[in-house]
Amino acid sequence: MKKTYVLDTNILIQAPYALNCFKEHTVVIPLVVIEELDGLKKADGERGANARKAIRILEEMRLMGDLFEGVRLPEGGLLRIEKNFINIELPPDMPDNKADNRILMVCKGLKEQTPEQLVTLVTKDLVMRLKADMIGVQAEDFTTEEVSPDDALYTGRTEVYIPDDLMKNLKKSGIPAEEAYDVNDNGERVDVRLTQNQFLIIKSDQSAKKTLLGRVDRGRIVPLSFKKSQPYGISPRNVGQYFMQEALMTSAEKAPLVIIKGMAGTAKTFYSLAVGMEKLYNNPTGEYRRIMICRPNAQFDDDIGFLPGDEQEKIAPLMRPVIDNLEQLLDSDEKRRYENEMLLSDKVNEIFERGIIQTEALNFIRGRSIVKTYLIIDEAQNMTPNQVKGIITRAGAGTKIILLGDPNQIDKPFLNERTNGLSYAAKYMKGSPLCWQITLSASECERSALAMDAIERL
Question: pLDDT class for 300, splitting at 50, 70, 90?
Fold first, then answer.
């Protein structure tokens, strides 16, 4: 059965390519959506860029035929703009001068005109979906970018058993990945499916006391190369941090993309900074030219233009969590850390003045090619899939991109734990030899006893 999908403006603002995601079905764009895109085309940031991209796609379609009659899409569907149904009656509490309600009028009109087809409103707005329910129109979210529950469960790490007589081979030559197995609830051996760059807690099948840490590399289990490292004087405090350190310390040539997920207090930002500072400041290797940090909160796209000052002054308040971590790294003596606030502040300012660490707003990275840079994207769960694709494709030679975040802490409208850019990147880069990822568990929170207790209780 062919279906008709009516797209809300917010779909094209987040995913301009959505026009080509409905296969053989009909895609309808209400004229009011075109008007809204036109109003957004000069906006700064991601909204404006995506509005312009959607308009360009529609212009390409217009040159192929009459958009009001319908133009064939590559997958066999039909795209058309709907200008009618301006006299459709809605409930009294839905005034027809609102753009959202004009979209609903089109949905209701199409449903009455073509009862043989299923008309569905596609919107990321919950209120719009509720309104559609009120007038008897089916509504759904745009799920093309959504990560499946199974994909969301991937943590980049697992526990496996290895025959005891092979344990000694890990450091010498590695162990064939097919030798690893798991045990089910009945104590029976079951095969495990391992992924490239997946981290492993390796247990002997004969002794509970024999445990090693390793990683999957091209069909073999290999030991960690940086287990004994102490970047900027920091030592791992738990298994997750050993794995995180391995991914961060590995060169940009072997691990140009690192994805680290975990709740607050698991030292994602702190450890990423420690490794960057080790390689650029404490023990310069020449591997990177600089550390660049972005925190793509909603404010970066929406409010930065209205804050006073230049770019650095505008984003400084949003970078305060980074500075907090930097203060702890620059003054490692926990007992005397804040005795001389002025000296500590001078140390932090020196790092920024020398250009060792630079901060950028996410929308200013678009169009650039970033070379030999240790690029940290903090709070990456607030990125859209389109943004994360844009960031990863900006990586030039020698650049290492580190995506940090907690998919359960979303601040940006229309995103959730399965549609955000961090989860999207984790799903589609899983298994890539160029991507290493790790999820830190709640038990690996190192912020404070109170933070750990709150994670378990709240």
Answer: very low
Long-range contacts of residues 410-417, Cβ cutoff 8 Å, at least 24 apart: 410/381, 410/382, 411/297, 411/298, 411/379, 411/382, 412/297, 412/298, 412/382, 412/384, 413/298, 414/10, 414/14, 414/124, 414/125, 415/381, 415/382, 415/384, 417/152, 417/381
First to last CA, the chain: 47
Provide the 10 A C-beta neighbour count for residue 318: 21
Phi first, then psi: give them for residue 267, nearest 5 degrees.
70, 30
Alpha helices in 45-98 (DSSP H): 45-62
The residues, ordered by sequence, that sit 6+ positions from 294 with a Cβ below 8 Å of its Cβ are: 300, 359, 360, 361, 362, 365, 375, 376, 377, 378
Burial of 141 (0-12, 13-18, 19+ CB in 10 A): middle
Helical segments of 141-287, H only: 149-152, 239-249, 268-277
CATH topology of domain 3-140: Rossmann fold (3.40.50)
**Has domain 237-457 been given CATH number 3.40.50.2300?**
no
Residue 379: pLDDT band (50, 70, 90) is very high
Phi, psi angle pair for 275, to nearest 5°: -65, -40
The one-character DSSP state at 146 is: P
**pLDDT over threshold 60, residue 388:** yes
CB-CB contact of 259 with 435 (8 Å): yes
Alpha helices in 90-207 (DSSP H): 99-113, 126-134, 149-152
pLDDT of residue 301: 44
- Do 237-457 and 3-140 have the same topology in CATH? yes
* pTM for this entry: 0.86
Average pLDDT for 351-367: 81
Which of 192, 194, 312, 259 lies closest to 440, judged by CA?
259
* Distance from the Cα of residue 205 to its chain's centroid: 37
Task: Please state the domain extents for the chain.
Answer: 3-140, 146-223, 237-457
Closest CA to 29 of 38, 39, 19, 20: 19
Q: Give the pLDDT confidence of 233-270 residue by residue, as tens digits.
A: 999 999 999 999 999 999 999 999 999 999 988 999 99
Q: Are 173 and 179 in contact (CB under 8 A)?
A: no
